[in-house]
Amino acid sequence: MILPAPCLRVMMSGASGAWVLPGIPCHRPGFYKKVPAGKRIILFKYGADIVWVFMANARVLVSDPLAEEGLAILRAAVDVDVKTDLKEDELCKIIGDYDALLVRSGTDVNAKVIGAAKKMKFIGRAGVGVDNIDVDAATRMGIIVANAPEGNTLAATEHTMAMMQSLARNIPQANASLKKKEWKRSKFMGVELNEKTLGIVGFGRIGREVAKRAKAMDMKCVAYDPFITQERAAQLGVEMMSMADLFKVADVITVHTPLIPETTHVINEKSIATMKDGVRIINCARGGIIDEKALYDAIKAGKVAGAALDVFEQEPPTESPLLTLDNVIVTPHLGASTVEAQLNVAVSVAKQCIDVLKGGSAKYVVNAPMIPSEHTEALQPFAQLAEKMGRFAVQVAGGRLSSVECIYGGELSAYAGSMKFVTRLALKGLLDPILQQPVNIVNAEFVAKERGIQVSETVTEEAKGFKNLITIKIRTDKGEETVSGTVFQKGRSRIVAVGSYTMDLIPEGHLLVSKHVDQPGVIGRAATVLGKNNINIAGMQVGRFNPKEPALMVLNVDSPVPQPVIEELRGLPGISSMTFAKISDEKI
Ligand SMILES: NC(=O)C1=CN([C@@H]2O[C@H](COP(=O)(O)OP(=O)(O)OC[C@H]3O[C@@H](n4cnc5c(N)ncnc54)[C@H](O)[C@@H]3O)[C@@H](O)[C@H]2O)C=CC1
Ligand SMILES: O=C(O)C(=O)COP(=O)(O)O
């Protein structure tokens, strides 16, 4: 049975194995039936009745090892396939069947893979680094990419500390030697870390935890991170300095940045030359932050006393000459490999995956604006209003969109840093109705940029007498349109101005917008045409300045207005324009 989409309201859904009462309506006496394997049931409210449909489960591919606790969360809601060690072409062949993909660092989710992922809604990284995912390609396709940034911080921190201490005391080398039945005590003379200076490049979650532990060992900690304030570092007793100064003063250098163009090869031939003789270098972040060739040469030349590496430019680093050096200790990307961390990241990413597949959002999205969680609830009604205003404005203005300005006033000025989130929803509203491709919060900004639409955002305390005010000004090749809206208490939202006309318009359902001359009979004639065509008027707003001057009328109507009726309305005397606008998420 096909039901008109607006009539459907999801009551609940259940995964395969659940017991439900089938039949239409299902509250009539009947029998219970088990939801078949591979299907989920969705119950809809349809008028007074509750109806049900079986739908195929969403399908999730897990292409790197994921802790059982995460898999269990997934299996309770969706169909899960775990297929590790897939080659690129194997992955491309099957990826089109899946709604979500979960990976660690072992899968190269490149543009080719993403291009083949036609149904994909979510890519989850069970860990921090997303450098193995082409986030731009995913963004372009409107795919949410999320990671699990908190779950493995302590694992990576403890691994860094273990590497630093092993490096200082030659533990791996001594261990290997003794296991060969050698007893070479003088060969493995170490150095103390006490009172040495640790230079931390990248003072994020792991960098800060490393500092805390190094301080407990009476090391002096200095750090470089362009995005962390001196005050923040001072709270941990760490001195922030430039990277150049850090390289000059550190006895041990550890890197904890993402791998991005700015951090690629920051440890290179030139920067090593400025370091102390006998410096030790640790990388438990990402291969590529250190130029491995330069590191090899500097160790060979005796400039660098040793290195501890968990990550490599090529993984596995089978061809790396660094593996041949005695004073280089290595682990095979084990930073996050603890039972605790793997449980944390698997659960985090599995929950986010299910949230997204159910139509919600993910907690740690990396390709949509992050807003502080304490702002999310407060900004939700504004985001919804902005999207509806966008839909309204673009349909009323007509024409090809060239610029969008979003102005946030009054109490919204307190959320200045988070308004990008609302702007993306406004853009979704503006673009989604007129484009064939799906537009969502992930790709809205990208789609606008790609189409040469200029987007700007202003935050002001001015709100024209309202507590809060959103104004969206758009320019198209047919002219300009300005729509303002506000959110009252309990999330009630209204469009309060269209152009220079004041309104009190509920931005819902189907709207007819007319520009006409304010004179007796015009509104009546329009109402007659609608009545004749069985279109019920649910509400009416008229904005005008003076009688007999141009006025604006917006009618809330209960059903779509067919094109011939719009044409008939346009032909009425006194009416200069008539536009139909849908504030639902249907394409126009
Ligand atoms: N070896 C392993 O198994 C693991 C590796 N990692 C890696 O460790 C690294 C750090 O992870 P987290 O601390 O969780 O990330 P984070 O995002 O909390 O910290 C990264 C820090 O780098 C800073 N940064 C950005 N650009 C910089 C630049 N140009 N110069 C200096 N600092 C810059 C940021 O401001 C931020 O404070 C990431 O690359 C992550 O992928 C994380 C977990 C496990
Ligand atoms: O979280 C990260 O950034 C890591 O590097 C951990 O990688 P993994 O999940 O162990 O392949």
**Number of helical elements:** 17
> What class would the helix/strand composition place it in?
alpha/beta
Report the count of strand segments: 27
Strand order across the largest sheet: 13-12-11-14-15-16-17
Radius of gyration: 30 Å
How does CATH name the architecture of the largest domain?
A: 2-Layer Sandwich
The distinct bound ligands, ions and cofactors come out as: 1,4-dihydronicotinamide adenine dinucleotide, 2-oxo-3-(phosphonooxy)propanoic acid
Keywords: Amino-acid biosynthesis, NAD, Oxidoreductase, Serine biosynthesis
Pathway: Amino-acid biosynthesis; L-serine biosynthesis; L-serine from 3-phospho-D-glycerate: step 1/3
GO molecular function: NAD binding; phosphoglycerate dehydrogenase activity
EC number: 1.1.1.95
Detail the topology: elements first, then pairings:
Layout: E1 9-14, E2 19-20, E3 33-34, E4 39-46, E5 49-56, E6 59-62, H1 68-75, E7 79-82, H2 88-95, E8 100-103, H3 111-116, E9 122-125, H4 135-140, E10 144-147, H5 153-169, H6 171-179, E11 197-201, H7 205-216, E12 220-224, H8 230-235, E13 239-240, H9 243-249, E14 252-255, H10 269-273, E15 279-283, H11 292-300, E16 304-309, E17 328-330, H12 339-357, H13 373-397, E18 401-410, H14 419-431, H15 444-450, E19 454-460, E20 468-476, E21 479-487, E22 493-498, E23 501-505, E24 510-517, H16 522-532, E25 537-544, E26 550-557, H17 563-570, E27 575-582
Bound molecules: 1,4-dihydronicotinamide adenine dinucleotide and 2-oxo-3-(phosphonooxy)propanoic acid.
